[in-house]
From TrEMBL:
Keyword Transport tagged: yes
Organism: Pseudogemmobacter humi
Gene Ontology cellular component terms for the protein in this record: plasma membrane
GO molecular function: ATP binding; ATP hydrolysis activity
Protein name (Swiss-Prot/TrEMBL): Lipopolysaccharide export system ATP-binding protein LptB
EC class of the enzyme, as a word: hydrolase
Domain ABC transporter span(s) in chain numbering: 2-250
UniProt keyword Metal-binding present: no
Keyword annotations of the record: ATP-binding, Hydrolase, Nucleotide-binding, Transport
EC number: 3.6.3.-
PANTHER family recorded: CONSERVED COMPONENT OF ABC TRANSPORTER FOR NATURAL AMINO ACIDS (PTHR45772:SF9), CONSERVED COMPONENT OF ABC TRANSPORTER FOR NATURAL AMINO ACIDS-RELATED (PTHR45772)
């Protein structure tokens, strides 16, 4: 579904992504791991159009999407969430979901003046859709809470809910577990699995929690220093000597292997 070919993203002399080549197959929950500074989030930002690549190509299916802006990728069904949730704090949780679909009738002055019935009908449908999403994510009880008042884990669920308000095909999740307690993290993981199995979502997930990756992701890709080191099941990747060295360093790797 997503194919990345020899992708580079440089910041001056620093090569954040340095010739990465990888594929994300349709229908998978792909885990992306690696030590801090490996280039994972930069890779996400380039794929999702927030940063232009220095060189290399990105494809979605057979279509090249290299350098397309986020709003165009949004309409193609490619969405990205962030390590720190980007909610609209003064709006309710339900309102945060309702505002996601593009080209709503109320955005146009003519409709606001002369087509109020059309706007009411559309808002009713959006409200029903938002309530369906909240029920799916088991957070209906916070629908009317201001988004600024809910917990970090609940904000991550709301971000996931936003992807359900549109026709998402592939979603890039950046550290869904950051600042989230174990119970809510399991809830998030269960929702990801249900979206994958029941609604055909494809996911790519950056996460440092290896238990989460091992439970929900297959395959797993490991990056280090801007390059792809290994790909396979979680056990295959964790036992790859290049991965051990990237996480632990050469000296500790020798101790682990020789233990």
């Amino acid at each position: 579904m997503i194919r990345v070919e020899n992708l580079h993203r440089h910041f001056g002399g620093f090569h954040a992504v340095d010739g990465a080549t990888l594929s994300i197959r349709k229908g998978t929950i792909t885990g992306l791991i690696g030590p801090n500074g490996a280039g994972k989030s930069t890779l996400f930002n380039v794929i999702a159009g927030r940063l232009p690549p220095t060189s290399g190509r990105v494809f979605m299916g057979e279509e090249e999407i290299t350098g397309l802006p986020p709003h165009e990728l949004f309409h193609k069904g490619l969405l990205r969430t962030f390590q720190i949730a980007h909610e609209f704090g003064s709006m309710t949780v339900r309102e945060n979901l309702m505002m996601v679909p593009a080209n709503q009738s109320g955005e146009h002055l003519w409709n606001a003046l002369f087509s109020r019935g059309k706007i009411r009908d559309e808002e009713k449908r959006l409200r029903e859709k938002a309530d369906e999403v909240l029920d799916f994510l088991t957070i209906s009880h916070i629908a009317d809470n201001r988004a600024s008042d809910i917990s970090g884990g609940q904000k991550k669920l709301v971000e996931l809910g936003r992807t359900m308000m549109v026709d998402a095909k592939i979603v890039f999740l950046d550290e869904v577990g950051a600042g989230v307690n174990r119970t809510l993290l399991n809830t998030i993981g269960d929702a990801i699995v249900r979206l994958n199995r029941e609604r055909g979502y494809t996911f790519c997930v950056i996460e440092h929690d290896m238990d989460f990756i091992g439970r929900f992701c297959d395959p797993v890709i490991c990056m280090a220093e801007g390059k792809v080191l290994a790909e396979g099941t979680i056990d295959e990747v964790k036992n790859d000597e290049r991965v051990i060295e990237a996480y632990l360093g050469r000296g500790l790797k020798n101790k682990v292997v020789g233990a």
